[in-house]
Amino acid sequence: MTQLAEIKVENALESHRYARGWHCLGDADQYRDGKPHTLDIFGTRLVAFATSDGKINILDAFCPHMGADLSHGTVEDDRVVCPFHHWKYDAGGKCVEVPYCKRIPPKAKTKKWLTCEENNLLFVWNNPEGNPPREGVVIPHLPEMDSDEWIHEWNIDIMRIDTNPRELVDNLVDAHHFGPVHGTPTSYFSNIFEGHIGHQIFRGDSEHLGGGLAADSAYYGPATHFTRINSNFGGVEVHAILLNSHVPVTPNSFDLRFGCMVKRVAGMSDEQTRQIALDYVVGNRNSFYQDVIIWKNKIRIDKPVLAETDGPVYQLREWYQQFFMNEDQVPASMAERREIVTVALSKP
Ligand code: FES
Ligand SMILES: [Fe+2]
Asked: Would the CB of 72 count as within 6 Å of ligand 1?
C-alpha cells in the first residue's frame, strides 16, 4: 500500500481529530525555491509554495477538477499549476485560469491554510472547527533572533515517528526519565500550565553535555516546544535554544523536527564557535534520540500507574486534551496558572 493509501485507510478507521494549534514546518526559506512542496500532514496532502512577495502559501493539494496533486505541478507567476490539465490556482486557492476555457467554474477552489513565519520558521494553523487562532495564541518571537550574539541557524533534523504524538508531549512532565535515559539526574523539576502554554523548569547534570545543566522550556500549543538551555560543554559555557516540534501525519505517526541554535562564544573565532555549535547540536541530538528509541518501542498507556513523585502526568494530559476539544468546551480552569514542583533538591 502506498503511504497515501495508508493515510486514507487510517483516517477512515478512526474518527479522529488533529490538535488545534500552530505546527512547525521547519526553516521557512526552504520553501522559497520556486517549486511546490508536498506536505503529508493532518491525514491529508497539502501543497506549500512561495509567491514573489516572499510569502509562503499552503493549500489543499488535490485539484477539485479531477483530483491530481498540485504539489506535483509547477509554480508560475505566483500560481500553482496542476500537472494534469494545467488549471492555475492563486495564493488564496482560487482557480484563476483554465487554459482551454474562458469561464472558470465557481467551485474551482481549494482550501487555503493559515500560515505564519516566526524565528525564521514556517508554521501552519490547524483547527478542525475552522476558526483562526484566538488572541494571544501565537508562537513567541525569540529576542535572540534579533541579537548578533547568536548564530541564527536551527540545524534541523526531521524524522518520522510511528506513534501517537502524546508520547512526545508526556516528556514535558517526566522528571524521572532524565537519569535513566539521558544520564542527567534531576535536582529541580517543575511545570507550570497556563492557557495554551506548558512550561518545564529543569536543573540537573549531564554526562553527555559534560556538566551542570539548566533548561527552561515551554510548549506553545500542542506541538511546538522551545527550550533555553545553558550547560558546560567541554569546559565552555554554551547557551542554546532547542526546537522540538512535530506535525501529525496520521493519528499514529508524526514528523518530528529537532533543531538547535547556539550563542557565539566570547573569545572564539566564528570558525571555532561554529564547530562548538555543531558538536553541541550533535550532543543534544544524541541525547534526544535516546527518547526517540523509547517512543518507537513503547505502547500507549492511557492510565499510567504512578509513584508519588512521578510528575503531573494526568495534569499534563488534561492540558493537552484542550487542543482536541471544541474551543467553547475547554474548561475555564485551563486559563488559570497551575504550578507543580516535582523535584526540589536544589533551587530553580
Ligand atoms: S485535475 Fe487539476 S487541472 Fe485537471
Ligand atoms: Fe527526554
From this structure: no
Express each pLDDT in 127-169 by its tens digit. Answer: 999 999 999 999 999 999 999 999 999 989 898 988 899 999 9
CATH class of 143-344: alpha beta
pTM of the predicted model, to two decimals? Answer: 0.92
Cα(65) to centroid(ligand 1), Å: 5
Nearest CA to 196 among 258, 139, 256?
139
Q: Would the CB of 344 count as within 6 Å of ligand 1?
A: no
Fold entry, domain 15-126: Rieske Iron-sulfur Protein (2.102.10)
d(CA 255, CA 233): 29
How far away, in angstroms, is 96 Cα from ligand 1 center?
13
Q: What is the pLDDT of residues 99-129, one digit of tens each?
A: 999 999 999 999 999 999 999 999 999 999 9
Phi-psi region of 62 (alpha: psi -120 to 50; beta: other; left: phi over 0): beta
Distance CA 203, CA 255 (A): 28
Distance (angstroms) between ligand 1 centre and the Cα of 7 equals 22
Residue nearest to atom 4 of ligand 1 (CA): 85
Q: Which ligand is nearest to the CA of 86?
A: 1
